[in-house]
Amino acid sequence: MKRSMWVVGLAAVVVAGCSGSSGGSERRGLKAVSGEQPIGVVTTTGMIADAVEHVGGHFVRVKALMGPGVDPHLYKASEGDIARLSEADIIFYNGLNLEGKMGDVFVKMARGKPVIPVTDGMDRTLLREPPEFQGHYDPHVWFDVSMWSSILGEVANALGTLDPAHARDYTANAERYRTELLELHTWCRREIARIPKAQRVLITAHDAFGYFGRAYDIEVVGLQGISTVSEYGLKDVQRLVDVIVARGIKAVFVESSVPRRSIEAVVQGVLARDQMVAIGGQLFSDAMGTPGTPEGTYVGMVRANVTTIVTALLGSGGGT
Ligand SMILES: [Zn+2]
């Protein structure tokens, strides 16, 4: 009896799908939950998509709105994004104000489907509240791999509520991936510890690395001030030159937001004091690499960053 009702329900979905695009999303949700089709998931960042893919396995079909190089702080939902979000069965986002311009969209979407901030369950006492975030928590939690692994439980719960038939699979997948991430966490700590303590300083423009620094015992110094070429900016250049020379730091890490000449001013300043400093390569911060490459996964992105940092600060890259 039940089964024939589902068949009727599915036939209705097919008809709705053919006749028009609007109004079909709720039925689609029903269909997904019946196990006939994967659950349609939309996430904001690639890091969250990676987590949902691991937890959901073949029961989910995941789309991340923000691709490589996209800045989530400034991201505004396009018309195409709104359509994708409307069609999704469930939405996951970072929260902690990372997607600062998407709040209204999430509120609207939450009227019709689960909209889950993955950081919601995180222990608030573990969140950073640096002054530069002006009263908000630092949202860049994915750079402490151990902290980030705690979202997997949240994802498993949300998927299991939507699709109770596979709740156990989601929990088991979350456990398995969490074990892998905790191994990655240990690896990161061991790798960063290879850099002598005095030179264990990450000089970078983006404010994304606060949790990374805390988790892996590496001091983070911002290049931020020097991105404006002013008297203040020049003072920052001098301050950085002093730090680099005093501590024998071998590399700084650039991002596209910092003008080349500001970085060059730092390098020149260090050279003028008879010391070498290299530009240590680009780090992934708020977005993963290109899909299909190792850096297009969360684990690959973290590994790439750690390898870039360790190679540059140990000065064993050779020739750069
Ligand atoms: Zn950021």
Question: How would you sum up this structure, described in words?
Answer:
- With 320 residues, the protein is an alpha/beta fold.
- It has twelve helices and eight strands.
- Helix 3 (46-56) packs across helix 7 (151-162) and helix 3 (46-56) packs across helix 8 (167-192).
- The longest helix is centred in the middle third of the chain and has 26 residues, at 167-192.
- It is elongated, with a radius of gyration of 23 Å.
- Mean pLDDT is 86; it is low at 1-32.
- It binds zinc ion.
- Residues 73, 140, 208, 285-286 line the site of zinc ion.
- Zinc ion is lined by residues 73, 140, 208, 285-286.
Write the layout of secondary structure elements.
Blueprint: H1 2-19, H2 25-33, E1 39-43, H3 46-56, E2 60-64, H4 79-87, E3 90-93, H5 103-109, E4 115-117, H6 145-149, H7 151-162, H8 167-192, E5 201-204, H9 210-216, E6 219-222, H10 231-247, E7 251-252, H11 260-271, E8 278-279, H12 298-314
Parallel strand pairs: 1-2, 1-3, 3-4, 5-6, 7-8
The structure holds zinc ion (ZN).
Zinc ion (ZN) binds next to loops.
